[in-house]
Amino acid sequence: MEKNQMQDEFTTEMHAEMLSGEISRFDMKVLGAFGAMRRGLTKEEALKECGLTEEERI
Question: pTM (2 decimals)?
Fold first, then answer.
């Protein structure tokens, strides 16, 4: 892939909309936070990016 070529990627919100009825929006946010941490974000950064708080974690 060329350096200037954009890569198509669904956001967590896009996935939640596609999977509505199959998985809750909250669960999609949790999965999004997990993915963000796997990409190298800190837990705090991942929670903020996904609109979650420390108190909501499971």
Answer: 0.64
